[in-house]
Write a structure and sequence with these properties.
Elements: E1 2-5, H1 13-21, E2 26-29, H2 32-36, E3 41-45, H3 49-58, H4 62-69, E4 75-79, H5 80-83, E5 103-107, E6 116-121, E7 123-124, E8 139-144, E9 146-150, E10 156-162, E11 164-172, E12 175-178, H6 186-198, E13 218-227, E14 233-236, E15 244-245, E16 248-249, H7 255-264, E17 269-274, H8 287-298, E18 303-306, E19 312-313, E20 319-320, H9 322-331, E21 336-339, H10 341-353, H11 361-369, E22 374-378, E23 380-385, E24 396-397, E25 408-415, E26 420-425, H12 426-436, E27 440-443, H13 457-466, E28 471-474, H14 480-489, E29 494-497, H15 499-502, H16 508-515
Parallel strand pairs: 1-2, 1-3, 3-4, 4-12, 13-17, 13-29, 17-18, 18-21, 21-22, 22-27, 27-28, 28-29
Antiparallel strand pairs: 5-9, 6-8, 7-10, 10-11, 11-12, 13-14, 15-16, 19-20, 23-25, 24-25, 25-26
Bound molecules: ligand 1PR.
């Protein structure tokens, strides 16, 4: 049996699901005594370092955890659960860590997008049972803005490169930790977890040793989900956001099955967008929660969920905060949540006052679950102008002139699934959300959605140049070459598609095979 230390933040369901998939039972520690008497302990950490240590202290888990760690029994820390072993973190300078290993946790200071999100490799530094059975050139899923700087090289189990080399796994005796998430790293991640669970593997160094590891460009499958006219939850797909054909909602399959198929076919992430979330409150009607729970039982890559994440008052006068909605999604298996319409309203408020309230959904969810868990989904559409002085919004000179030959355009944000345009542009929205603590931008494009003519390269370049956080290019993919184009002509970290995958026009593997000689991908 594996004991899991759940301090209440983030997605422990994925870890539970992965362990159960491997045929092992999980016991969730509810008290200090549960920790002290564990046989094998896994500590998955998500959120901010300060919030984590604060909760551990409040629950009086620190002493039992140290007692367990000093007992010599097997311990695996994941992500923040590994960082907690060190003395402290620049993320929360006032909080001490467990001080079991010498060193600290620092923020990435690099000229690349931070957080470091996605699939990267490892360079194993010493013999270990944890990576038994691996070749050595596999990729694992990372999502973090801070990394360990170990003072004792003997504790460093693996290094990874992102701008510079950083510690991606540690080991001292039976204490092991990974910065990456094995529970989200597909089949190879399950190998790592199984090695930890079994505790009977030989300590070896994998045969292949990359000179440098490289972050892969991610290919994301997106499932737009809503109820059709018969009330069944279906994956649908719009043409420029119109999901009806001959009056009926297009039905392209069942969400859980389709997500499972994309995992098997090599998707690096799966995104669910509850596209009618702006009018249906997700906690009143729980089908998306169920979809997440079922999906996360068999899909071991990151899951993002969007739609309806906002404060809400139900008909009985009960108020739910966006944080509560997000918490329910995280508990059900989501790794990231995405905010669409509410982000536009939040930015409108911010632009009026010029101040952070600390109360917006973006700030609150980022504080508790970490920036990397907050994605902003932008639904922009082009507005053409004859010259830049006709608008106060930032414009580009476009290679695709407007209907009256206009040579300039700006990108207007919309809410409610593209139904309503607002006086905010995509660049201002992305930049402001980054300031408020968002960790990633999902950049859709209503003009391109469902058209199969390729991504809007001009839009992606404009937004990507304005932010430091990763950008997911979305809308318009029609063939493998469009993915190559978006990665060659922009610095987007990942590309998302829906229609071509749902209709089986282009398999995910074909996209990756096409990209393999051009950019780094996870094969
Ligand atoms: O506003 O926080 O409740 O979130 C609602 C979410 O639902 C937003 O993220 C919004 O983008 C999404 N959404 C709302 N209506 C639609 C619609 O299509 N009618 N889908 C919609 C938007 C676009 C992508 C699509 C890509 C790739 N989605 O999801 O998957 O364009 O498609 P393609 O490869 O076929 O071109 P809130």
């Amino acid at each position: 049996m594996i004991t899991l230390l759940d301090y209440g933040a983030g997605n422990v369901r994925s870890v539970v699901n992965a362990i159960e998939k491997l045929g092992e039972t999980v016991f969730v520690a509810a008290s200090g005594q549960d920790i002290v008497s564990a046989e094998k302990l896994i500590f998955p950490g998500v959120g901010s370092f300060g919030a984590m240590m604060g909760i551990l202290r409040n629950k009086q888990f620190v002493e039992p955890l140290l007692a367990y760690l000093n007992s010599g029994r097997p311990f695996l820390g994941i992500c923040l659960g590994m960082q907690a072993l060190f003395e402290g973190s620049a993320e929360s300078p006032d909080e001490n860590g467990l001080c079991l290993l010498p060193g600290r946790v620092e923020r990435f200071e690099i000229d690349l997008a931070v957080p470091h999100i996605g699939w990267n490799g490892i360079r194993v530094q010493q013999p270990t049972d944890l990576f038994h059975g691996l070749r050595g050139d596999e990729k694992f899923y990372f999502v973090h803005a801070y990394h360990v700087v170990a003072d004792d090289p003997e504790t460093v189990l693996a290094m990874t490169d992102y701008g510079y080399p950083f510690v991606s796994a540690v080991q001292r005796g039976n204490i092991q930790g990974t910065q990456f998430h094995p529970e989200k790293s597909g089949a190879y991640g399950l190998v790592v977890l199984e090695n930890f669970i079994r505790q009977d593997r030989q300590a070896t160094i994998p045969a292949r040793q990359p000179q440098r590891t490289c972050l892969a460009k991610r290919i994301i499958a997106c499932l737009d989900v809503r109820a059709n006219d018969q009330g069944d939850l279906v994956v649908t797909k719009g043409d420029q956001y119109d999901v009806r054909e001959a009056g009926s909602v297009r039905n392209l399959g069942k969400p859980v099955q389709l997500a499972g198929r994309y995992f098997e076919e090599g998707a690096d992430e799966v995104t669910f967008l509850n596209i009618t979330g702006f009018r249906d409150f997700p906690l009143a009607d729980m089908p998306m929660i169920q979809v997440l729970k079922e999906t996360s039982e068999n899909v071991f890559v990151p899951l993002t969920i969007g739609g309806g994440i906002r404060d809400f008052t139900d008909k009985n006068g009960r108020t739910y905060t966006a944080l509560e909605v997000a918490a329910e999604y995280f508990r059900s298996g989501a790794d990231k949540i995405s905010i669409g319409s509410d982000a536009v309203y939040i930015v409108e408020d911010y632009l009026k006052t010029g101040r952070k309230s600390g109360k917006s959904a973006i700030e609150q969810i980022a504080y508790v679950y970490g920036s990397q868990a907050v994605v902003i989904s932008i639904d922009p559409r082009r507005v053409y102008v004859a010259s830049p002085d006709q608008t106060s919004h930032p414009t580009i000179e476009t290679a695709i002139p407007g209907p009256e030959g206009q040579r300039y355009c700006w990108y207007q944000c919309t809410v409610k699934g593209g139904r309503e345009g607002r006086d905010v542009d995509a660049v201002t929205l992305a930049r402001t959300c980054q300031e408020l603590g968002a960790g990633e931008i999902l950049l859709n494009c209503i003009d391109r959605d469902g058209t199969n003519v390729g991504f809007d390269i001009e839009l992606i370049n404009m937004v990507k140049k304005a932010v430091r956080i990763p950008v997911i290019a979305s809308s318009g993919a029609g063939c493998e070459a469009h993915f190559a184009e978006v990665f060659e002509k922009t610095d987007a970290e990942s590309a998302l598609a829906a229609g071509i995958f749902h209709r089986r026009e282009v398999p995910i593997r074909a996209v990756k095979a096409h990209l393999a000689n051009r950019v780094e991908v996870r094969l």
